[in-house]
Fold this protein.
Amino acid sequence: MEKRAGARGPMGDEQKRAIALGRTQNKAVDRYLEFLERSKPKRGRKRDSSRVEEQLKAVETQLETARGVQRVNLLQRKEDLLAELKSFDDVQDGSAIEAQFIEHVAAYSDRKGISYDTWVKAGVPAAVLVRAGMKGR
């Protein structure tokens, strides 16, 4: 049987490696951009983990005697405060995410045709791009 023009044969090892590398690069870039979005400064007074922990203790004290709707509201407040505490940890874990971004962004940019200026406009700090070996104008 003759092979049709344009028909795909089995994928070679090199092609499989290229696809896997592309996925790894994409994941690293995407995770870093999401991290940047999550860690953007919020309006208003800056909160820190010690203040959230104080509020959490106060809510737990109030929960000891709360009943009905007040108890449900306090339980929700506790969940919200715990999630906020976790978000502080996520921001601190950003160094690993940043390191993966630095490792992959230059090759990803070459493959996708993304310029240094575009990354800066997207919110990536210039210092991070320089560490990745990318140069601005």
Residues 13-40+48-131 form one domain. Residues 66 and 74 are 8 Å apart (CA to CA). The chain has a mean pLDDT of 86. The chain is about 70% helix and 0% strand.
